[in-house]
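Structure first, sequence second, as always.
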């Protein structure tokens, strides 16, 4: 027999997913490899087939080569971008599992219909079929509902016990649903800031090179600016993706939270209406 909130704890573990630290490390390794072997491929630069070719002094002939010339900030921004992508995939599957197998709206409607009939066993069967975190929380409330029917407590105290059970089950589950989302929210700002930092460093490097040359080289200046602005574009794209994914996943969590709140109200209201003591 399951102990108190055992099922909720089990569902919470399923929703936790992969640690953000591991994902960031993998993203960093992939970003460095992509920077060195894809962006930094010799074929992306002019004169790579000639003897004495030096990549650091070569002029890029492709967009990939231009991104490579953006410097060490490029793999840093790529790390953030890959982290957002991987965390988004991880959260997508984790939250879908937490939501359960069936449509959440239909599940809520069917459970409420059974509650109106005071058919608690049928409601529990729906929770077992739905599975996921939402169903586990609702099932915890239903089990407490049945338990209170055999307790010799005042009616108000029983209702408070049911509410406390639902609140405790929700408190156990919510942290696992929100896991890794603060990382995505942070990257929404860091991506843009890293991009701007890379641009500033690139501009400093470009104007410094012009000063060393002792003259104004329009070609060198335009090339340097384009290389610097690559960082801005990459950083803004990373920040925008992070904002979009964060909004999407917080919306899914809000929908689940609303469903839990609605079911909690329905369970306590049903008990209040159908029991005199």
């Amino acid at each position: 027999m399951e102990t108190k909130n055992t099922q909720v704890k089990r569902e919470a573990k399923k929703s936790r997913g992969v640690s953000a630290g591991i994902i960031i490390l993998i993203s960093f390794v992939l970003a460095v490899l992509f920077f060195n072997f894809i962006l930094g491929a010799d074929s992306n630069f002019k004169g790579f087939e000639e003897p004495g070719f030096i990549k650091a002094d070569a002029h890029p002939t492709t967009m990939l080569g231009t991104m490579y010339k953006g410097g060490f900030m490029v793999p840093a921004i790529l790390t953030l971008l890959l982290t957002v992508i991987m965390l988004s995939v991880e959260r997508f599957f984790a939250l879908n599992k937490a939501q359960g197998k069936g449509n959440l709206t239909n599940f809520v409607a069917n459970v409420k219909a059974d509650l109106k009939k005071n058919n608690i066993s049928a409601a529990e069967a729906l929770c077992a079929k739905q599975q996921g975190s939402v169903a586990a929380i609702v099932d915890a409330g239903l089990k407490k509902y049945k338990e209170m029917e055999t307790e010799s407590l005042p009616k108000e105290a029983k209702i408070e016990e049911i509410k406390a059970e639902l609140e405790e089950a929700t408190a156990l589950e919510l942290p696992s649903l929100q896991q890794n989302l603060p990382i995505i929210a942070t990257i929404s700002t860091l991506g843009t800031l890293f991009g701007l930092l890379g641009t500033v460093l690139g501009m400093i490097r470009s104007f410094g090179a012009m000063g060393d040359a002792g003259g104004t080289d329009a070609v060198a200046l335009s090339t340097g600016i384009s290389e610097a602005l690559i960082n801005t574009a990459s950083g803004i794209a990373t920040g925008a993706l992070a904002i979009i994914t964060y909004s999407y996943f917080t919306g899914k969590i809000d929908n689940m939270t609303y469903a839990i709140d609605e079911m909690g109200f329905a369970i306590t209201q049903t008990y209040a209406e159908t029991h005199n003591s």
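Margin note: Residues 6-274 form one domain.
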